[in-house]
Amino acid sequence: MTQQISNSRFSKQHLILLPASILTGSIAGLIGYIIGQYFYMLFVFPFLLLAIGLAFFLPTLKFSKTSNALYNALCGLLMGLAIFTAFHCTEYSIFDARITTRIESAQNVDRATASGSLDSFLKEKTGLGGFAGFMKYQQSQWRPYVYYFVKGGNITGSQDLALRGKIAWLYLIGEAGLLAGGLAAIGFFAGKKI
Q1: Domain parsing of the chain, residue ranges
Q2: What's the pLDDT tens digit per position in 58-85?
Q3: Gyration radius of the chain over CA positions
């Protein structure tokens, strides 16, 4: 009887943690996107996203009180992927809304036709439509990042970095890996302490 009660409680805790991790990860990704509009520094921003994720994940772990380290690691991994996906899906949604509105007004067509036109453009350029086509198209474009060096209030120099093609994909894989791996590790070690 005691075994049955503890297994029942165990299941409820697990049922709380999994959707809570995905939901809070999606919220963290949205918050990260908003912050990224004002502050984005290549190679630094993924760590900021990880910190936002931790700010949501640790209270979620504490609330659920699950002590299974592997399950907590899985939830951390899923939360990291939810952050990554929500961040880039928000970027795509805003891109889609802006471009579709421009096509509507420039060509005097309805929203469905404008959306179809954007999708056709993405398919033509990348072979894929929608979010996948957007991600592939975005990584094929030259995306410069400029860093300014300041000394004594004066700009003393700058460094240009640009991501494109394979390097951009490697950066995205690293970003997703940092988020998923970092939160999985936190979940694993936090699960051992609960």
Answers
A1: 2-193
A2: 999 888 888 888 999 999 999 999 999 9
A3: 21
